[in-house]
Specification:
Layout: E1 3-5, H1 6-9, H2 14-18, E2 24-28, E3 31-36, H3 44-59, H4 63-71, H5 83-90
Parallel strand pairs: 1-2
Antiparallel strand pairs: 2-3
């Protein structure tokens, strides 16, 4: 499906949206008025591997130096996005991220 019409969009189910092969144009007549992007669940094992790599790379970084370098472009996000801080905020432990065997 290369596009979906506004009229069809009103009738499509969430399941059908999730089954779309990727981003799909939403058209009104011949004019593209939007983009429908189905969200897919992340593979927990792949996500864990990416997070592990990001944590390893972050260990060698100086957060203050990074913030100072970024400050020239825009405001620096003051939130601590470390795994420990996010787990404390959400009430989850590191073990809950691991996939079950």
């Amino acid at each position: 499906m290369t596009h979906i019409s506004i009229r069809d969009l009103q009738k499509i189910s969430g399941e059908a949206i999730g089954a779309l092969p990727g981003p799909t144009a939403v058209k009104s007549g011949e004019r593209t008025v939007g983009l429908l992007i189905p969200l897919k669940s992340a593979d927990p094992d792949r996500l864990a591997a990416v997070l592990k790599r990001a944590e390893a790379l972050a260990k060698g970084r100086d957060a203050r130096a990074d913030d100072a370098a970024l400050a020239g472009f825009s405001d620096v996000d003051p939130v601590d996005w470390s795994v420990a801080a996010v787990n404390a905020l959400t009430g989850k432990t590191s073990k809950s991220r691991r996939s079950k065997p």
